[in-house]
Amino acid sequence: MQTFALGDFEISRITEWHGSFAPVSVLFPSIPADAWQKHQTWLDAHFWDAATGDYQAHMQTWVLRGQGRTILVDTGLGNDKPRVHGLLANRDGDFLHRLAAIGVQPEDVDTVVNTHLHTDHVGWNTRLENGEWAPTFPNAQYLMHKADFDYWNPANNIPRKSDFGDPADSRAGFDDSVLPVHRAGQALLWEGDEHSIAAGLSLQLAPGHTPGSTVLKLHSGTDRAFFVGDLIHTPLQFLTPDHDTCLSEDQQQAARSRRRMLEEAADTNALIIPAHLGGAGGAEVVRKGETFTIKQWAPLTAPAANPGRPVRLT
Q1: Closest listed residue to residue 13, CA positions, set 275, 284, 307, 235
Q2: CB-based contacts of 99: which residues, under 8 Å, 6+ apart?
Q3: pLDDT tens digits for 76-125?
Q4: How far apart are alpha carbons 143 and 68 in whole angstroms?
Q5: Can you spell out the DSSP letters for the chain?
Q6: How far apart, in whole angstroms, are the C-alpha atoms of residue 308 and residue 15?
Q7: Which of 45, 111, 179, 232 is deepest in the core (most CB within 10 A)?
Q8: Rounded to an integer, what distance in angstroms lies between the CA atom of residue 93 and that of residue 79?
Q9: DSSP state for residue 215 in the 8-state scheme
Q10: Distance between CA atoms of 272 and 164, rounded to whole angstroms?
């Protein structure tokens, strides 16, 4: 179990899978090759495999417990999902057992935050029950930005801008992991720039990666943390925030959202916790001219063993 305290909250990380995902030259086309080599001593091997050139991805869920609440930030890949890509398809993982190991049962969860609606962030929103997709967390309110719900809804027939991955997986992910929650009356489709969850907990729109990408902000006592979803994929984006991934629907807008978030985090001494970062899982940053540098890492270590099979998407 990987857990640390932040104000009145206990923060835990549940890693569903980690391993080689795709070459960094494909995922981060604007980052020069020598940038990875320059920072090899600390990028390899938690964030990047220097031997293969592959990005090291971590599919994980953050669990926040405090003030009588149990909140999940994103829900990973899920089981039994029909997908095109091998990493996503028909999994039989032990995610719920991992939750149980930290003392969390599905019925205990009161809030699920989907930072955005990519399929690797909504998989455990639902599970198969008697051949039907049902909400995994029966007592939870699922928070999704309406802009993402509308954008990924196949009924709206909005063309994707990112060509990474298969559109069939996006359609299937919405149909089996988002729509059943909405039909069950457990989805709150919030709108606008901000949404308050409770005292010290709020969501802020940070569009670009997807139209409805959001950041969960936690302020407890003197501590702050920003759970930024896919706003950051690699620690190099702490240093050079203008670089984005090929996964984004609007790379320029994503870069602007990332820079705004980093500026606020640096000014407020907030811990930045991305969805897919390995190693310590997050970091604090400080300004360095027009860019930023890492002040210190989050108080976590890397997972001891790979819980999934090594699957490379490209």
Answers
A1: 275
A2: 14, 63, 105, 106
A3: 999 999 999 888 999 999 999 999 999 999 999 999 999 999 999 999 99
A4: 18
A5: -EEEEETTEEEEEEEEEEEEEEEHHHH-TTS-HHHHHHTHHHHTTTTEETTTTEEEEEEEEEEEEETTEEEEE---S-SS---SSTTTTT----HHHHHHHTT--GGG--EEE-SS--GGGTGGGEEEETTEEEESSTTPEEEEEHHHHHHH-GGG-PPPS--SS-HHHHHHHHHHHTHHHHHTT-EEEE-SSEEEEETTEEEEE--SSSTT-EEEEEEETTEEEEEEETT-SSTHHHH-TT---TT-S-HHHHHHHHHHHHHHHHHHTPEEEESS--TTS-EEEEEETTEEEEEEE-S----SS--S------
A6: 10
A7: 232
A8: 6
A9: E
A10: 26
DSSP per residue over 231-280, as a string? T-SSTHHHH-TT---TT-S-HHHHHHHHHHHHHHHHHHTPEEEESS--TT
By the 8 A CB rule, do 75 and 94 touch?
no
Could you tell me the maximum CA-CA distance found in the chain, to the nearest angstrom?
Answer: 57
The pLDDT, as a whole number, for residue 1 is: 60
**CB 145, CB 121: distance < 8 Å:** no
Amino acid identity, position 207? P
Given the DSSP bridges, would you call strands 223-229 and 214-220 parallel, antiparallel or unpaired? antiparallel
Residue 296 CB neighbours (<10 A): 11
Report phi then psi at 297, rounded to 5: -85, 160
Cα 271 to Cα 285: distance, rounded to the nearest angstrom: 8
> Can you tell me which residue has the tokens 């940038």?
35
Q: How many residues belong to the chain? A: 314
- pLDDT tens column, 257-275: 999 999 999 999 999 999 9
* Entry pTM: 0.95
Query: Any idea what the Cα angle at residue 82 is, between residues 80 and 85, rounded to 5°?
Result: 110
> Residue 269 and residue 292: Cα distance in Å, rounded?
13
